[in-house]
Amino acid sequence: MAQLPDLLHRTLFRTISLLTPYGQSLVLRRYFDWWHRSPDPWLLASSPYEQRKYEETLKALPDRTYRTIVDVGCSEGVFTGMLAAARPDAEITGVDISETALTRARRNAPSVRFVQSDLFSLTGHYDLVVCSETLYYLGGRLEDASDRLCGLLGPEATLVSVHPWPEARRLNRFFEARLDPGGERIVEDTDRPFAISLYFGTGSRG
């Protein structure tokens, strides 16, 4: 059962999603810039939970060649830097709505291209799309956000969605209807269980 802080958190972002797309983007940008007024506000670089999540996500990636990778909602680029180290031959793009976060990300992972954007403004096609703990910020625009992520998939591409469990079931439901399932790993032996869910563009499995 969801805890009260999580319920309040989700209610806040559902309310923000009632704004126009421009208004939602503006509020979220200011919100995350405010959070990033101090470095690493969520302890992404030091939290045992985050480190475990990163390690499990990297292990879950199918053994394929990824020429282009996008990390959506990359914050200060901690996991994006790990992706760059694990896949040195790939062209990696980190995307976040907060320019304050990206200023630090560019220092943390200088080999990565970082772009300030909201999800709905993203364009291009990628071999691997990573979306970790981002979807619940979109509130009532979850279906539109899922469509946009699916639209970023190139031929034979992989989408990785990493979100709290069991909430991941709700957040991933639109992927289930649009993409081929590639397996799911649920990690429960942490203080905050999470699911790593893989999806493939139609016809890309094999």
From TrEMBL:
**A Pfam family hit:** NodS
Domain of life (superkingdom): Bacteria
Q: Does the keyword Aminoacyl-tRNA synthetase apply?
A: no
Q: Which GO terms describe its biological process?
A: methylation; oligosaccharide biosynthetic process
Supply the alphabetized keyword list.
Answer: Methyltransferase, Transferase
Any GO molecular function: S-adenosylmethionine-dependent methyltransferase activity
Q: Does the keyword Repeat apply?
A: no
* CDD domains attached to this UniProt entry: AdoMet_MTases
SUPFAM superfamilies cross-referenced by the UniProt entry: S-adenosyl-L-methionine-dependent methyltransferases
Q: What is this protein called?
A: Methyltransferase domain-containing protein
